[in-house]
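User: Before I run my own analysis I want an independent prediction to cross-check against. Here's the chain; please return only the structure tokens and, at the end, one sentence I can use as a sanity check.
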Amino acid sequence: MSKKVFLSFLLFFIVAIVLVFTFIDIFESKEEPKVILKEKQISKVYRYRKYIHVKNFYKDIAQNAVKIGLKYNVPPAALLAIAGVESGYGRGYVAKITGNILSLGAKKGEAELPALYLPNPKDDSSKVLYGSMIEKYEKDKLIWKKRPKSLKKDYRPKSIAGTSKDLDFLDKNPDLKREANLACMEDFAAYWINRNKKFKPFVEAREMLDKQVKLHGESILFDRDTNIQFIYMISGKKNSFNYRETWAPKVTKIMKNTGLLELTNSLHVEGKTFDELWGS
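Assistant: Structure tokens:
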């Protein structure tokens, strides 16, 4: 091999190596933004995930909702969406005081939140203050109002349930708050969606869910159509969970815009943490 041919071959080899590494750098630089974009797009696809109060609410209860749904054949995504609507994502004063995030009525003999005399700030009539929250405001900045009996079950400890004592107890005890929320969801799944319920919508919903699980297995509980059918079956009519025709579309909208179907299915199947799946 002549010296000229050898040098030409060597030059070609060096150029080839440079080109290979150049293409690798270009490929990697293109791939990295795709991952970042995917994470950012989560909050665009699921519009409600950008709100921190929505994330905080579901972070505490999502995994338990999946477990309860599988235990009692109740769609977990629908359960979470209903809780979001009924409690204002845990921010309603009845839900905050009692842990009753589903607005479940108290049965005979169960403790219920009594009538309360509570203030709201003059500049925010939607915010009801209780417990130590009141101390943060000057007296002339408050408007006091009588709040009627809620008729909702009080999930605080028996020593204070059904009373006006320690209204901020669950705020000060987050672990017990989580237990109260869990008990509320379990009551809904076990006792409200039940064949022995005297009202037809609940019985029909229970029969539908049991039939679907028997035919298709537990995966049907994460199916979009099953969740929506369940929501509509228990609403919009007399003696249903909520008689208003606007309720089911509202619950369905929350389920869609928060990505609750995808969240609950992934929690069940993938074994990832809430934070990994939520995306921020």
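Sanity check: The longest helix spans residues 3-45.
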